[in-house]
Write a structure and sequence with these properties.
Largest sheet: 4 strands, antiparallel
CATH superfamily: SpoA-like
CATH class: Mainly Beta
Number of strands: 4
Number of helices: 4
Order of helices and strands: HHEHEEEH
Radius of gyration: 19 Å
Structural class: alpha+beta
Number of domains: 1
């Protein structure tokens, strides 16, 4: 259970809890980005199976975590039950998020 959910359950059924419960089921798009690069159309068309596209990030750098296209955290790749995951290392503060928008 998340810290937010625990705080919600600890409160009584006041207006704050009801207002927060209204948004808990809103779906969000979470994206983890390994890196980026730019390609010319001719280079893209020449790609075939087994081709390697070099990304701008160095191996071992933290991955960017976006929620609805907004950077919210950075993390490192992990394997969990034979699936890839991301361990959050740094959560972007609200102040930093606002600065990136402006």
């Amino acid at each position: 259970m998340s810290e937010l959910q625990e705080k919600i359950e600890q409160k009584d059924d006041g207006p704050d809890k009801k207002n927060l419960e209204l948004i808990l089921d809103i779906p969000l798009h979470l994206t983890v980005e390994l890196g980026r690069t730019k390609l010319l159309v001719k280079d893209l068309l020449q790609l075939n199976q087994g081709a390697v596209v070099e990304l701008g990030k160095m191996a071992g750098e933290l991955l960017d975590v976006f929620v609805n296209s907004k950077l919210v955290a950075r993390g490192e790749a992990v394997v969990v039950n034979e699936k890839f995951g991301v361990r959050l290392v740094d959560i972007i503060s609200p102040v930093e998020r606002v600065e990136k928008i402006a």
